[in-house]
Amino acid sequence: MSINVTDIKQLVYCPRVIYYTYVEPVPRKVSFKMEYARSQHYELNQKEKRRTLKRYNLIEGQRLYGVTVSSDSLNLIGKLDILIDTENKNGQRYYPVECKDTDSKIHKNIIYQLAAYAMCIEEMTKTSVRKGYIYIIPKQKAYPINITDDQKNYVRKITSMIKKIIYEEYYPEPRSKKRCWDCEFQRYCSDCDLPNLNEMKERNKELMRELLGFK
Ligand code: SF4
Prior knowledge:
GO molecular function, one term: metal ion binding
Number of strands: 6
CATH class: Alpha Beta
Low-confidence stretches: none
Bound molecules: iron/sulfur cluster
Strand content: 15-25%
Cofactor: Mg(2+); Mn(2+); [4Fe-4S] cluster; iron-sulfur cluster
Largest sheet: 6 strands, mixed
Protein name: CRISPR-associated exonuclease Cas4
CATH architecture: Alpha-Beta Complex
Keywords: Antiviral defense, Exonuclease, Hydrolase, Iron, Iron-sulfur, Manganese, Metal-binding, Nuclease
Number of helices: 6
Order of helices and strands: EHHHEEEHEEHH
Number of domains: 1
Family: Belongs to the CRISPR-associated exonuclease Cas4 family.
Helix content: 40-55%
Structural class: alpha/beta
Mean pLDDT: 83
């Protein structure tokens, strides 16, 4: 069984999400946040097909959408939002672009996911990938991200952890209980740390401001 690249993002968010996905699957609800993200991704792909690559500060190249990439050595598979093929003969040829649907800061889980895509591309194409982009949909802006050896090593550690959870049916500790308040799995974690009702209301307001772009 292959691990999906999105599992890397999930593990960094909370390792228990992996447990509830593979070891003891539980019904998942599609939240408003997830539905919104899906519609934004769809719109982006439609619009992006008509645009140039200038905003990425790259020379023109072929844009490939929803490309399946994989790594046998890491046992990883995933679907990359955009792969740019610059056809460069010297230097980096392929650039992964991962799209993000909120304008909150770029969290590490997204960067590790991008690094994992880069590692898959390296293995498939036998070329080096040292830079990728995270495209923030609400800002319509791509941020260059350097992909480092440390990030790649961390991705290796994360994939080992994911395998441990799945194959040894290991129930992990949460990474941070601060994330429990808007987690779709909170009813399955008896030890999650939920804030009081007023804090929840405030955080929900923050989320709406973030999603809808209010200041
Ligand atoms: S509720 Fe908390 S501990 Fe449980 S999966 Fe979500 S973030 Fe992790």
